[in-house]
Amino acid sequence: MNPISLLGELGRAILTMLAAFGRVALFALDAVSHIFRPPFYPREFGIALLNIGWLSLPVVGLTAIFTGGALALQIYAGGARFNAEAVVPQIVAIGMVRELGPVLVGLMIAARVTSSIAAEIATMKVTEQIDALVTLSTHPMKYLTAPRVLAALITVPVLVGVGDIIGIAGGYTVATQNLGFNPAAYLKNTVDFLEMRDIVSSLVKGAAFGVIAAIMGCYYGMNSGRGAQGVGRATKGSVEAAAVLILAANFVLTGVFFSL
Fold first, then answer.
1. Residues 170-189: tens digit of each pLDDT
2. How many domains does the chain have?
3. Most buried residue, 2, 101, 129, 143, by most Cβ within 10 Å?
4. Beta carbons within 8 Å of 157's beta carbon, 6+ residues apart
5. Distance between CA atoms of 237 and 232, rounded to whole angstroms?
6. Model confidence over 190-247: pLDDT tens digits?
7. What's the rounded Cα separation, in Å, for the pair 51 and 46?
């Protein structure tokens, strides 16, 4: 391939990527705008709250507790190389609250909730249920997307907070039971080291990641292809896109809070 053809292919790839970002951004703005405009669908909102929030607690809790325990072991082993084992409580707390808690919860939500939303809406599209909603004068964005986005905005920060606490508890358990830390001193060091902006950054990240996960599930579901293959591609694409965007958003938000 000659350089001019290569440059042309690169240009087309960039334009395609920018067009995709534009479509997602317009979809997101439309979805958010429908949250605040009647009619509202409390039943759909309640179902979304249950699915995104309550039913995600087991996977969030298990992920957090094992991550916190493993983090305590790794920090202790690394700190032992230069006689800094005492920093385990502080680093576990800051690591879980600032980074690992929000990111891991976001990725678990992407794996569990985004895929579920995409598969459900894509199946509705394939079976022409979305066309039926339009026939009944029900806006699909209002009925399908807005309740899920709002539920994710509310519940994912709560899940992040719960995950942070469970992760710190996992580190506490490992440190006090296996590494010989004093329980009271461990708790005091954890509480003294954390600042309010650490907690705020964690919850803000949770809200952002929840919105990303819900919007990507709805977007890929609404734009899925026909047949079972279309549903499969929509589900796979939604999880991939949500995971990448969550990690990118984490980098941006970390930079913002770091500069404050």
1. 999 999 999 889 999 999 99
2. 1
3. 101
4. 203, 204, 206, 207, 210
5. 8
6. 999 999 999 999 999 999 999 999 999 999 999 888 888 889 999 999 999 999 999 9
7. 9
User: Which residue, chain included where needed, has tokens 């039926």?
Assistant: 132
Q: DSSP assignment of 150-197, as one string?
A: HHHHHHHHHHHHHHHHHHHHHHHHHHHHTS---HHHHHHHHHHH--HH
Concatenate the DSSP letters of all residues of 52-75 into one string: HTGGGHHHHHHHHHHHHHHHHHHH
Identify the domain containing residue 12 by its residue range. Answer: 3-259
Maximum distance among all Cα pairs of the chain, rounded to whole angstroms:
70
Q: How far apart are CA 150 and CA 100, in angstroms?
A: 24
| pLDDT, tens only, 67-78 | 999 999 999 988
Q: Say if CB 128 and CB 61 are below 8 A apart.
A: no
**Cβ neighbours for 205, distance < 8 A, ≥ 6 positions apart:** 102, 103, 106, 160, 249, 250, 253
Which residue in 32, 14, 13 sits closest to 219, CA to CA?
32
Q: Which two tokens stand for residue 111?
A: 């794996």
Burial 207-216 (b: 16+ CB within 10 A, else e): bbbbbbbbbb
Task: Judge contact between 202 and 161, C-beta under 8 A.
Answer: yes
Query: What pLDDT is recorded for position 140?
Result: 87
112 contacts 238 by C-beta, under 8 angstroms: no
How far is the CA of 105 from the CAs of 112, 165, 175, in angstroms? 10, 12, 23
- Asked whether the predicted pLDDT for residue 1 surpasses 70, the reply is no
Comparing 43-47, 66-70, 138-142, the range with the smallest average pLDDT is 138-142
